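**Archive record**
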Amino acid sequence: MANLINLDRVSKGYDAAGELLTEVSIGLDDTDRVGVVGRNGAGKSTLLRLLTRADEPDAGRVTHRRGLRVASLPQTLDLAGEATVGEVVLGTGWLAAGFDAEHEWAGDAEVRTILAGLGMPELGLDAPVGRMSGGERRRVALAALLVRATDVLVLDEPTNHLDVAGVDWLAAHLLGRRGALVVVTHDRWFLDTVCAKTWEVTDGTVHSYEGGYAAWTLARAERQRRAAATEARRQNLLRKEIAWLRRGPPARTSKPKFRIEAANALIADVPPPRDEVSLRRLATARLGKQVYDLTSVALHAGPRPILTDLTWQVGPGDRVAIVGANGAGKTTLLRLLAGVQPPTSGQLRVGSTVQPAYLSQELTELPSDQRTLTAVEQVARRVTLGDRELTASQLAEMFGFSGDRLWTPVADLSGGERRRLQLLRLLAGEPNVLLLDEPTNDLDTDTLAALEDLLDSWPGTMVVASHDRYLVERVADTVYGMFGDGRLVHLPGGVDEFLAAGAAGSTAPAAAGGAGQPSPAAPSRPATQERAARKELTRLERQLSKLERRESELHEQLATHATDYAKLSDLDQQLREVREQRTATEEAWLTLADQLPSS
């Protein structure tokens, strides 16, 4: 590995936000694939600007390897309106500076392949970007980065404006790309798929973790669990501290290691996300037997047909996700269910007890002349969600509004904060049907987790249109796909089935391609060798369990014999030996686990 970028005791702040990063020291190597996470406003985008030298630090130093090629996708773009797609993508536009003008870029066919992967197959290279939507312009800018060979690729929210197929394509493309990658995104599936390291920006500093989103979540929870256990043990021994203060026993600490046992211990007593039977019973009590019944419905968006002869039923307690390409009609379908847009033909019957709440992609309904808490209390001062009763301020805190932010004028909130407030106000109204259009836009990962936790215990009917694969798989029980051909298709296999159906529709007929034939796999280690390695891995895991039990027993004996100096000395020696064995066994387990293919 070669080091590419270093931040040495870097600090950065702005007048409006104060100091965001304080004496941060971190480095980027040429093989790193880093996902950057943290709450909105914590300093993630600032960190990216420092890495790329778009901003200079207030203190400290940022160093680049000589001749380093860095390409960056910022959140805010500045594309010349008169420029064409070809000029932007092929390098004569906004990104030409800093690159070798004589470089032989990929041919037009490859450019079109990248544009198609980003959901823009209909665009020609001569199309002016000034006439495009914000999402299209962002995808053109992303394509301009992807056709270039770079040492470091820095992407700030690259999945915005991409549908689920586009996110899937981008993940595959980045996995096959050489060079270092640093990406800020709230798409947790994308983080887990693409990234091998996670940087958490919090409290003015940056913590580094090995692994993607799932590994970071487990490591963070394990860190908090260990901190709580350490504090509990400290409190338990505090009353004995004076008695053996003069003996000065050595600190009993060990470096935490991430392994499968830690993950199992964290989730051992966690109940399922939701009790579906109980929630459906509650939903039936609140909603009656009918929610939405569609019979032979046709729906148009202007002259374009969205649905053709659709007969569909949504019942009490149903949790439905709608997936589809951008422009397939997901928003139009939600507007139909919300009563904003009538069907072109056919019949839509809505249950008499239905109280819907529609989350649109716009933020125009927020009262900009009020403060945050007042805007929530305007809807309700107390809220009952599932089996929980919350005050407006408690609900606001779950969505990241606490302290001074409760009293911030709505007009001064960031885009992500306004989105959170929009969700707050909807839930505070205690609807029994939620219609959510891209609810994860602009939300950070912690806020998304809080939202999903609420939705897990929410007993009403929910229809959500989203490109966030993680959210779909977490909160929905049923997935339907829209393919732009007037159909709404039930997908028992979820997002994977949608992607497979899309891929099948864009390739040659199966009969011509040898249907059913598996693709050639890369050669793997001999089966007997792998079996032996896995057997050794199992033995090491059993050994670790024994050592952990022994370490726990020694801690209990130390507490029991706290006044027996000779016994304490003997037990302490045994504890040191057990820890040494455990460390060696953990290292052997980690080394062997890294060598084995994922099962």
